Structures are given as C-alpha cells and as structure tokens.
Amino acid sequence: MSKFFSFSAPLFTQFQSLLEEAKEYHYSCPIAGERKGRREEHLIRLVFLFLCLLPFTLKAQVGLPEAPPPDSTGKRVKIENADSGEMVRQAEEYQKRLIGNVVLYHKGARMFCDSAVVVKSDVRAFGNIIIEQDSVSIYANSLNYRGESRKATLYDEVVLDDGKQKLFTDQLDYNLKTKIAEYHTGAKLEGEGTNLSSQHGYYHTETKQAYFKGDVVVIDSSFTLQADTLHYDTEKEISYFHGPTNMETDSSKIYCEAGFYNAIEQYGEFEKNVRFDDGKQIATADKIIYDGKKEQTYFEGKVNFEGDNRTVIADDSDYDPDKQISRFRGSVKIADSTQTIYADSLYYYEEEEFTRAWGYVVVESGDQTIWADSLDFDQTSSSGEAWGNVVIKDSIQNIWADYAQYQQGKRSGLAEGKVLLVNHEQEIIIDCERAIFNDSTSYIHATGRPLMRSLIEADTLYLAADTLITFKPDLEKDDRTLIADRNARIFKSDLQAVSDSLIYSTADSVFRFYKIDTHPVVWSDTSQFSADTIFIYQKNEQVDKIDLINKAFIINEMDSTFYNQIKGKDILVRFNDNQVRQMDVKGNGETIYYIRDDAGAYIGVNKTQCSEMLIYFGDNEVDNINFYRQPQATIYPMKQVNHNTLRLENFNWQDKIRPASPYDVRWREKEE
User: Fold this and answer.
1) How would DSSP label each residue in 65-92?
2) Which of 76, 139, 181, 188 sits most deeply, having the most CB atoms within 10 A of its CB?
3) DSSP state, 26?
4) Can you name the residues that pair with 545 across neighbouring β-strands?
C-alpha cells in the first residue's frame, strides 16, 4: 500500500523516521499469520498520527533556522526538497518516488532534477538534471546513480562543466569519488581556444588530465590534430601522442606515433616513424622538432624523404611511372598509420592501393603481428592474404597455418592447412585443418576434425569433434560457450566421454551431452554412464554431479564378468573427491549389484526392482540402498546364477569405444 504526501525537507525527514519505525515493527513480528493485522494496524496508526500532527509541525517550523547540511558520511541519499513524494514498497525494499523541484544530497554532492526514485543510496532521476560537486557541474536529462560506488551514469544531452572546460556527449559515466568522467559514445571537449572530439575518453576534473581514444580530433587556432590515442593536459594545453597521430598547420603536416605538442608555446617534438610534409616534399627522421613561433622545423637522426603518404626505408628502390609501381628491395620497411610491413622485397601499386611483399614478411598492426613467406595487402579494404609458414599473433591468440586471410580492422580471418590455434583468453589450444576467427567477438569456428586441449586443475582435457565452435554469448561478460558438433570425444585422466554433440559453458561449468543418433556415454574410473542427455556439473574444477536424463543406465565393472548395474528413467549421481557417493534413481528403477563380505569375497547377487531408490556408495562400492514404493528384491547365491547373462535389459558395456589416450579422441570413428 502506498500513500501520497507533500513535504519540505525537515518534515520528510520526520516522516521517514516514522516509516522506518513502522517498518521495523512490521518485520520484527514473529508470527506472520496472527499478527499481520496487528502490524498493519500499527503502521496505519503511525501514519495517521503523523498526518494529524502535520499542521502543528508546520506551524512549529515557522521562524526556525534551516536544517544543517546532510552528513556527508551518511550511507543513504538525503532528500532536501521535493514538491511531492510517494513511498512504495517493492519486494523487500522501499522506494521513495519524488516529483517536482527535487534536491538530493550524498557525500558532498548535490543533485537537482524534475523527478527521482530513491532506494537507500541508489537514485534514478529524470528531467533537467544537475549535479554539483566542488567546481564541477553536470547537466543531463536522465541519470542512474549507485551510492555505494558513487558512480553515476548520465544520459541525453550531457554537459560537464568544470569552469574551464565543457564536455558534451550523449552518455557519461562519472565517479563522484575519484572525480573521473568516462564516455564511449563520442564526445566534444570545448576549452579556451581549443576544441577536442573523440569516440572514447577519460577526464579527471581535479587534475585536469584527459585521455582520449578513437577518432581523436583536436582543433586549435594554430593547428588541427587527429590521433588514435591522446593524453591532454587541459591546464597547460599540452597534447601527448600515443599511437598514430597527424598534425596540420597552415604551412605543414606532421605524422608521428609518439611525442607532444604545446599549443600555448606552439612547440612540439615528434618521434617514432615521423613524417613531415610541407607541400613540396615529404621527409622522415628519428625525430622532428617543430617551432611554430619561429616557423622552423628541425630534423634529427636518420632522415628519409618520400613522395607519398607513407614511410619507406629500403636498401634499393625504383619506380615505374607508366604502371605506377614502386619497387623496394633489401631490408624493406614500409609504415603508415595502420601498420608496418617488413620484407626482403616489396611492390606498391599506387592506383590500386595494393601492396605485395615476399621474403620473410612481417606485418605489425597494433598488438597484432603477422609472419609469412609472402603477403598481399589491400589498403582499400584493409584485408590481406598470406602464404607459407604463416603466423598471426596478437594479445588474444596465436595462429600457425599454411595459408591465411585476415581483415585488419575487424581482427578477423581464415586459416587453412595445418592449423594450430593458441587462444590465451580462453586458455585453449586447437589443432584443425580450417579455422574462422574473430578476435573482436572472441569467435572461433574450427573444422577438419579439430582437437582442443584445455588445462583443468593441472590435468589436460582433450576434446575432438567434426566441428568446434567457441564464442562469447555476451561481449560485455567473460563467460564463453563451447559447442562440439558430431562425433565428440573427450579424454581426461579421470573422465572420458563420447557423444553426438555437446555444449559447455563457463558461466555454470556444465558439460551438456546430447543424443542425435546414439546415446552419449561417459566413463569415470570403472563406471559407465549413459542416457539420452547427460549433464556433468563441475565444482572447483572437479566433477560434482552427473545428471542422466531419460533411459539412464549405469554400469560398474567389478571384473571382466561381474557388473553392478543401475537403470531408471532418470538418475542423479553425486560425487565427492572425484568418487561416486550417492545415486538417486527416479522412475522404473532396477539394480543388480554384487554383495561382498568383510574380507572382500563375493557372497551373492542382489536384484531389485523399485520405482525410486537412493543408493549410497563407499570406496566405489554400494554401501546402502533406500527403496521407496514397495521394492521387489531377490538375493541369489553366487553359484545359482549365470554371471555372463546376468544383465538388465539394454545392458551395453561399451569399453571398445572408450577413448584410451589423448590421441585416441581425434581420428577414431564412431562404433557402427
């Protein structure tokens, strides 16, 4: 039940206290059935008492000084003003819904808005939002604020103003504790004479240090700068470059991959693959110093002059003007804003914007490096092909192949031949004949009977199938999914399995084995598990439980003749220290198990039928059985039964198809 009311800040504080008292009484009542009416009656009386005293309280407040500012160390958001409000209970918490001229305060920051929902120290706010903290003001149309972390996310026409700079964006994350603003949807920063835009950025409102990445553009009265990554000191107006950067003045253009530029002094130093273009010539050097006030440029180190938009170093070169082909030979290095290529020989086709290199080719792009005997690269599509001893290496994975295609910007490609893929992010190794990969989406599609190796608790799991697919269902999370399609086989020292297909998710650490043509089968030590569907749950990288769904059958080999057998519709198996401890048989239960004396000698066989039963194990042997719903049990002396034919219906000991070694999982065919 909710109640509408109007309040000023002091009155609302009183009303909050009254409600909290009522809530405390409400939830402390031990007998919900008998005392529910009494609790509600007490709550209503408290609210009614407050409403009756409201006029007297209003009169008593006349002439009193304003309430002291809220305690900045408080855990809850303080409500300083609102035209009206509503207290609503949602599940186990109360929401304060505030409307009209809302003013909130929390740990040194004050917020204004048209309406808000407050839950403890969390706030959702809407309309004409203003956050004030020290000299910083932030404006937006909606906001989510988490009081415990003091992090706010603001949306729609967001403006951050620190008195000297203004930041404009559609979405902004602001940490009121660290005073750091962060955005990833593009933004513009406007200062005194300098404007900057980028796709991603971080801005520290106290130190006035800003970090930008992705399509960074700086526009100043004396220059324009474009960069991939930029550190900007807004107080001193100094730009520090980290990555490919282009700077243009009225008289020249400069390219570099490291350095700085001081806009106030019009002075800059540019290093790493530097290129200078004054409209007449292009020059490269180890270092270029630009002094705008003197209108002078200085070159240091080894200088190379060029006639196009890239840096080229080689022992020998020539140019075919008719075909527009530049040919470079001997320790060739060609670098542009996206990549650097090393080769023994390299041809560049200007009209097609196409590069062909051979003789121990190396391509470096960001954190990605490619080695090959020969390579073609199309600058227009940012795609390439590589042949012979191909290696693709980046921060996510390494790939060895005979042939590869790759898309540079998307970090995706195709590898063929003898392919070996080592994924550091997923901690797996895959041998296959063909692999499609995309680093930006963590996607791998491997065919050609791929074999995957993964380290689990100092033990290696080997998995092979006709097709392996691994990907992230949600790119914002680290969870991954693995799909092994058709003829999947697993070998681990304490676990083996075969299945038509399986799915594994790191989100819940569960292997899911499915039937397409044949039942999946799992082996652990001397036990065999089979069913239409098998779920293996892991805990602390050990088998915790196995669920056998539909046509469940478990066989425990005592020796080559004696087999303990359990079958049912479903069987739930529980483990402890990698040993079976309990089996819960549900529906159509049947068992055959051998009885031993204390000396370990066989003394008989128990055959039981019971719809449901619970079996306990010790030292891999049946320790006790609880039967439900009128069991039918018979115990036979060992000499009165034929142990070779003592089998439950559909008994099938499939040791012949059991993976026997790590190398048995890849090429062995399914049993017909």
Assistant:
1) PPPPPPPTT-SSPEEEEEEEEEEEEETT
2) 181
3) H
4) 537, 574
